[in-house]
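queue> pop job 88
queue> type: inverse folding (structure -> sequence)
queue> payload:
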């Protein structure tokens, strides 16, 4: 069936779809977005390799230096939603440029961190500012590219993610061995120069505004509720499943229930209630949360056990992770096009199956044969290549223009909070086990068993996500108001 360009919107209609950019402008925007994503992902993957060395230099355990990632993921997730709503009020272009500048500046400050406390605090700050880059990047794609071309654009960005992920561990290993972990953070400083480029190259009409006020109370309720839940899982290794754990879970639940009540009672809520009544949106969000939890938890564990148990060099960690990262780089552009033709559900379901198989293989070889770990992570990468761009694109397609900011913001918050939860869960499972734990796969006790068991715990999340893929929309889903 031939695709026709969308009609030009009526000026007086806030519900009308935007006029999509011409092909040349769209290409320029895509190049800019891919460049920013490349630097950001390279930095993230280098930090994962550097974590054990940061812990050694500051004399802290996994439970402490894990907050370098968890703290970032926590504020990153929460502020993904906040930036999504703020973009409706102040404009996409301005907020995106500010986020890019924030990521570059905090990277320089992190390179100068005198202790683990200041580093964790800066990572919280970095997560809050840099959350604008992916959250608003998906919104920019939704407003610049027509629906039938978004999958391809998302696929190219995910391909860039894979390329950066493949280079990141290599570069991180080299920098750590030659100059120490501080240069890992400083390497993201060039992003400072991309902020003025974003202001110049992004279309002016991206600063179109929807709404007149920001629901500060609603944003606070949502942020505190999500934080309480994540913090509960991060303190388990120190305090166990006691009164504090269940108290935080209860407090988080109460705050989120108050948030749900509030969005039905104010004129311009932080999130529109109809977003949460759409089953497709809920299914997409749940699958994204569980998938990213599996991903982030595993990405944290693999470099740790390779360095601590297998005693390999950081460069070798990059070699082990290379196949999966290259598969993401090569396959992602094609999965975006595949989702444009077949819909999101089928590629995502297949990707979840591959993630589960890869996870089981990685758990089997954890602390043992590093070739087996590389094979497992290769299947992991292939699976995520089939999941990432289709799930984001499917969500953008069911959101009408007036709900794109808050809807995509909430979705990206859920997506990245899944990563923070996965890190917390993986570290907690490792540290709660005894000195000679029993293998859930029936292995002889050994130094790799705690990591194997933790990866199996993450695998259960992937299995649940596979069951939920039935709710993901198929080809050409209708926006919410027409569903």
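queue> result:
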């Amino acid at each position: 069936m031939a695709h026709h360009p969308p009609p030009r919107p009526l000026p007086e209609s806030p519900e009308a779809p935007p006029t999509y950019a011409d092909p040349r402008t769209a290409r320029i925007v895509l190049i800019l977005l891919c460049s920013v994503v490349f630097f950001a992902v390279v930095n993230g993957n280098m930090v994962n390799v550097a974590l054990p060395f940061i812990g050694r230099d500051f004399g802290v355990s996994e439970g402490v230096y894990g907050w370098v990632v968890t703290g970032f993921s926590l504020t990153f997730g929460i502020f993904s939603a906040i930036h999504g709503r703020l973009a409706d009020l102040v404009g996409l272009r301005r907020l995106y440029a500010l986020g890019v500048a924030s990521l570059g500046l905090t990277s320089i400050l992190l390179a100068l961190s005198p202790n683990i406390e200041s580093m964790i605090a800066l990572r919280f700050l970095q997560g809050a500012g840099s959350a604008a880059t992916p959250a608003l990047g998906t919104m920019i794609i939704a407003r610049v590219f027509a629906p039938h071309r978004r999958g391809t654009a998302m696929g190219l960005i995910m391909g860039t993610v894979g390329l950066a992920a493949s280079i990141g561990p290599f570069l991180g290993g080299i920098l750590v061995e030659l100059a120490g972990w501080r240069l890992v953070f400083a390497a993201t400083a060039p992003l400072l120069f991309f902020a003025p480029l974003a202001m110049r190259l992004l279309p002016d009409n991206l600063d179109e505004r929807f709404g007149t006020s920001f629901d500060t109370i609603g944003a606070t309720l949502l942020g505190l509720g999500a934080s309480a839940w994540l913090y509960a899982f991060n303190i388990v290794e120190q305090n166990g499943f006691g009164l504090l754990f269940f108290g935080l879970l209860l407090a988080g639940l109460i705050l989120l229930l108050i948030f749900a009540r509030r969005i039905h009672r104010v004129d311009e809520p932080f999130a529109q209630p109809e977003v949460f009544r759409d089953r497709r949106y809920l299914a997409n969000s749940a699958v994204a949360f569980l998938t990213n939890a599996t991903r982030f938890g595993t990405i944290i564990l693999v470099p740790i056990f390779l360095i601590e148990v297998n005693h390999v060099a950081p460069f070798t960690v990059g070699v082990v992770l290379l196949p999966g990262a290259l598969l993401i780089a090569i396959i992602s552009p094609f999965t975006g096009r595949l989702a444009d033709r077949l819909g999101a559900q089928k590629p995502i379901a297949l990707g979840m199956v591959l993630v589960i198989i890869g996870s089981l293989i990685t758990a089997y070889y954890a602390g043992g044969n590093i070739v087996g770990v590389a094979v497992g992570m290769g299947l992991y990468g292939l699976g995520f290549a089939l999941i990432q761009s289709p799930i984001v694109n499917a969500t953008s397609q069911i959101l009408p223009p007036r709900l794109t900011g808050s809807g995509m913001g909430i979705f990206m918050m859920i997506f990245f909070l899944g990563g923070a939860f996965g890190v917390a869960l993986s570290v907690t499972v490792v540290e709660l086990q005894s000195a000679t734990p029993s293998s859930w796969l029936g292995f002889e006790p050994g130094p790799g068993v705690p990591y194997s068991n933790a990866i199996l715990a993450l695998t259960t999340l992937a299995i649940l996500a596979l069951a939920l893929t039935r709710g993901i929309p198929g080809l050409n889903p209708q926006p919410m108001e027409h569903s």
